[in-house]
Amino acid sequence: MKIRVLGAYGAEGLAQRPSAFLVNDTILIDGGTVGGALSRTEQLVIEHALISHSHLDHIAGLAFLTETLALCEAPKPLTISSLEPVVKALRTTVFNDALWPDFSLLPTPGKPIVKYRTLLEETEYPVGDLWVTAVGVNHTVPCSGFIVHDSTSGIVYSGDTGPTDALWKAAARLKTLRAVIIECAFPNRLAGIANAKSEEDRKELRQRPDLRMDALGSGTDYTAFVDHLGIASLNLFDNPHSTASILALREGGTSTGFELFVSSTERFEARVSSRS
Ligand SMILES: [Zn+2]
Predict the structure, then answer these.
(1) Which of 26, 39, 67, 93 is the 20 to 30 A CA-CA neighbour of 175?
(2) Multiple choice CATH, 2-273, 3.60.15.10, 3.40.140.10, 2.30.30.100, 1.10.10.10
(3) Ligand 1 mean position to 53 CA, how many Å?
(4) Could you tell me whether strands 2-7 and 258-261 are parallel, antiparallel, or unpaired per DSSP bridges?
(5) Can you tell me the distance from the alpha carbon of 2 to that of 27, in angstroms, rounded to the nearest whole number?
(6) How many A from CA of 10 to the centre of ligand 1?
(7) Dist. CA 203 → ligand 1 center (Å)
(8) How far, in Å, is the centroid of ligand 1 from the Cα of 67?
(9) By C-alpha distance, which of 225, 221, 219 is closest to 262?
(10) How close is the Cα of 109 to the center of ligand 1, in Å?
(11) From ligand 1's centre to the CA of 35, what distance in Å?
(12) pLDDT classification of 169: cutoffs 50, 70, 90
């Protein structure tokens, strides 16, 4: 599985792009940024968008992507897959012919550029060459994380979430888990780590079992990739590779982009095999 970080920020600024991840060149996980990170040719082969929720920093790039697909006569439509309330929000508040054209009717209703697919929670669906399960998480609007895998490797993407048991329980069932991409504007219970003044204080907090994600074994056998740049959340994981991972995502926010090959490194394979 190849994951390209198109953006890993919760907003837009110079060399900072909102959250979006491109899997195997054709499947978006969230679409905060698309055209700002990809060439026209790269955009035209995108066939699916898994959307966690309707906040702009996760969907803004979809607007311009759909326009590009329409104007360039993309060979295949874009299928947007989300939980039912998220699909409804996109249809009624974004692609509603007021804020942006309703591309589910364009260029013709019979051959539209956008199709919608409603996902039931905790149900696995084929999406392109992957399998995808949406898991509802806690946010200010309806939102899901995604469990995504192929025959050899899998990832967990949190969407925007406060503390969630459901996602970690679902993740723990994925035997080929290679990586976790987690939004980390801090949950309140981790404020102590976020605000710790010294490394000594952080070290002490890290040892508190109540601040760990127990369902995943405290990160000893997977790598966490942190979205939204909550650096201190790295302290959740006693994983020697975490520092490299956060640097990768920060780089992903720049104009150069960054490609991350999840299943092609020995260390990920080794980490996963150590779980069983
Ligand atoms: Zn949000």
Answers:
(1) 26
(2) 3.60.15.10
(3) 7
(4) antiparallel
(5) 10
(6) 8
(7) 30
(8) 24
(9) 225
(10) 31
(11) 20
(12) confident
